[in-house]
Amino acid sequence: MREHGGNLDLAQQRFGGRAEDWIDLSTGVNRLPYPVGEIDAYHWQALPSRSDIEALHQAARHAYGTSAPIVAMGGAQAAIQLLPQLAPRGLARILAPTYNEYAPVLTVAGWQVEEVRELDALVGANLAIVVNPNNPDGRRHERKDLLALLPRVGYLVIDESFVDAVPALSLASEAGRPGLLILRSFGKFYGLAGLRLGFASGHADDIAKLAAASGPWPVSGAAIAIGCRALRDDAWAKATSARLARDCLRLDEMAQSQGWRLVGGAPLFRLYEMPDARAALDKLARGQIWSRIFKQNPSWLRLGLPGSETEWTRLAEVLAR
């Protein structure tokens, strides 16, 4: 497995403690998850039916504001694994630095992969990939600038895993256009990453390919039941988006008190620059708070947002030491 957040096993090996002792801020997963409630035994015992899966698709269209074809998968990562099957092998360009699974997945499948730094450099690629907002630096791109790329690339894949709390950035409403594929993560915003649920939305032909490659039961009955419930809970989504916006400011103020400079971020994580990110990670880890650093830039540290007031208090205490 490539390096990712959420690797609490490494934190425990180096600093001790049980998993439940740690506050894991190394991911961009909501620490105050959607209240799942009771799940009928049927969803655990029966294979999902076509009508069950279609109900989930309709709930996703509702949440994402689209009428385009959509397919549920085992997280956005499952869609990433299938991207090489969208088209014959060719040149893939990825707007970088970004999520580190795209390049290796395409390389292993025989694609020529180039990482570029600006949107215009994607032009001419058979497959162009943009994460919006970007992970880890939160870089954002306007809808019009992304749509302008469509006629200039073969396929344009927009990973919107962190867009839920900033829906004005989303291109989901345009997903029916040929050559445009939108990826969405359920687990991050709803705080249920272990459920392994995500979606791809796009032109009917492309979604049919992905659906066929995913098999007859791409997600579990429990994921369908929880997803249908959460994706139609507009009040929870609105309140959560507002809380995350406030919490970003709160975390930025705490980081500023440490002399850390904000590089950027999305409503579920912040990226800070400092003289020695490894030293900051170690300081936090001694208080059993896990963060994320990056080999390619030793001055970057990424923090997710604490959830409960108890977590916020502990973070403040550890930073104050």
Structure keywords:
36% helix; Aspartate Aminotransferase, domain 1; Aspartate Aminotransferase, domain 2; seven-stranded mixed β-sheet; 321 residues; alpha/beta
Low-confidence stretches: none
- Output the radius of gyration: 20 Å
Give the N-to-C terminal Cα separation: 34 Å
CATH topology of the largest domain: Aspartate Aminotransferase, domain 2
Number of helices: 11
Biggest β-sheet description = 7 strands, mixed
- SSE string, helix = H, strand = E? HEHHEHEHEEHEEEHHHEEHEEEH
Shape: globular
Helix percent band: 25-40%
Mean pLDDT: 96
**What is the CATH homology-level superfamily of the largest domain?**
Type I PLP-dependent aspartate aminotransferase-like (Major domain)
CATH architecture of the largest domain: 3-Layer(aba) Sandwich
